[in-house]
Description:
Blueprint: H1 3-7, H2 16-25, E1 27-30, H3 36-53, E2 63-65, E3 76-80, H4 87-95, H5 97-106, E4 110-120, E5 128-131, E6 145-150, E7 161-163, H6 188-191, E8 200-201, E9 209-213, E10 218-220, E11 229-238, E12 257-259, H7 279-282, H8 287-290
Antiparallel strand pairs: 1-9, 2-3, 3-4, 4-11, 4-12, 5-10, 6-9, 6-11, 7-8, 7-10
Amino acid sequence: MTPDAIRAHPPKVLTAAQRETYFETGFLAAEGLIPADWLQRLNTLSDEFIDRSRHESPSNEAFDIGPRHSAATPRVRRLRALVDRHPDFWRFAAESVLADIASDLVGPDVKFHSSKLNYKWPGTGEIVQWHQDIPAWPHTNYSPVTLGVYLTDCPAEQGPLTCIPGSQRGPIFVHRDEAGTWTGSVRPADMATVDQSDAVDLVGRAGTVIAINCRTLHASRANATARVRPVALFVYSAADAFAWMPAPTPTTHTGAIVRGSPATVAHLDPTPCPVPPDWSKLGYGSIFVAQKAEM
Ligand SMILES: O=C(O)CCC(=O)C(=O)O
């Protein structure tokens, strides 16, 4: 669906102004939309999985384990395929207000794609380099949106997601080095062509929902606080968007329709998109390894 077709459906959760901000800038941060009981449940589950990660190493299909991880000081960087880690994560993705927010942004027919919970630990120096999401999991159109929920307060010094306004209308960059190896990040020479001066930190209190379009350039700095930064991320698209390469981290719910009806006609956007590696053969691994942010 195009923004004009989406506008024909009144938003259920967002204000019309918030939706316009997303269409205009390619991202949004909105506080106060997640009910307190859901936020508490997500935090309880997150704490349980951090605890479980103490005995996990090396990384596996559930846990992306950082290099300084130990049982005493767990440094799990990511819970992979989050909706498969516990049924309540899937209930949150499919039944909570989050799927309504997705429908406000992609239209009434909403397909679930993937999910993860990213931790950014103090003192580990983990940064995420500038990238766009769509080159890792291309679709027939550019409706996919990543919705994130900060599980705790996330001020500027805690490594929030940072986005470049309007970049969703710009080029879709190659996320490989000059030798053709997947890096998961935009080449420095390409980033040098992008005005980064008006990049916006998506900060907010616990429960803030962030929305990032799949073409929007985004990154995140190191966490300079003494507290971990947990953000749960869920990718949705319009039902008429179809992935044309295997998903990097498929879940048992990938492709499920969470609002409205399945599409009977695919929407094909003519804007070309670079082809990612075939993750079904290569395996996705870790964005931190691909971006060489291991430290
Ligand atoms: O967790 C972060 O800070 C960035 C996450 C991100 O952009 C991604 O995983 O694609």
